[in-house]
Amino acid sequence: MTVLLNRNYVTPEMNKTLAGLSDNLSQTDIKIKYLDANFPFINGFPLLPHLSHNDGNKLDLSLVYQTLDGQITDHSKSISGYGVFEDVIEGEINQPQKCLSGGYFQYDYPKYLTLGQINRDLKFSEIGTRKLVLALIEQKEVKKIFIEPHLKNRLHLSNKKIRYHGCQAVRHDDHIHFQI
Q1: Domain definitions of the chain by residue range
Q2: Residues paired with residue 123 on neighbouring β-strands, in sequence order
Q3: CA torsion sign, 101 to 106 to 107 to 111?
Q4: Cβ(45)–Cβ(2) under 8 Å?
Q5: Where is pLDDT greater, at 42 or 115?
Q6: Residues 35-56: what's their mean pLDDT?
Q7: What does the pLDDT average to over 74-83?
Q8: CA angle 154, 157, 163 (to 5 degrees)
Q9: What InterPro entries does its record include (predicted)?
Q10: Alpha-carbon span 177 to 9, nearest angstrom
C-alpha cells in the first residue's frame, strides 16, 4: 500500500541507513517493516497526516509483534500499521492522557487511520521492539527516534537519540518514527 500511495521515497542516505539497519538485524528474526516515508512531489512538501515527512529523511517503522506462542512476526495489528496503540499499563507515564486532557485532540488521531484491524491475536513484542530500537541507535546517521515515553521506559531504553515528540504531534505507541 505504501508503494501504491507513492509514499516510499527516501534520500540515498536514508536508503543506506536502512541497509545498515537491515544488516544489524540480519542475525535476528526481526524484519523491518516501514509504514510511511515521503511523497515525491516537491521537496519540503508534506503529505498528510505527516507534517514532518517532507524531505525523504524521516521514516515510520512498525512496532515488532509476536504470535501467541512467542514467534516474532512481521505482521501488524492494522491494515495500515497505524492506530492500534500499545496502551499505558499501571505504573507507567500516561503521556497520551496528559496530551488529550491538555486539549491536543489530534494526539490519538492515528486510531482513524487503521483501515481496519487485523491479526488481533498478535502481542506487542517487548524483546523484538527493543532490539529494533537498539539497532536504530547503532546507526550513526540516525539523529532522532520517537517512541512514546511509556514504551521507552517499559523497554528500558536510554539514549539521547530517543526523544519525546511533544503533544502537538501524534502518539508513537503504534509505530516508531526515526530521522537522519
Answers
A1: 12-179
A2: 66
A3: positive
A4: no
A5: 115
A6: 66
A7: 92
A8: 105
A9: Zn_M74/Hedgehog-like
A10: 15
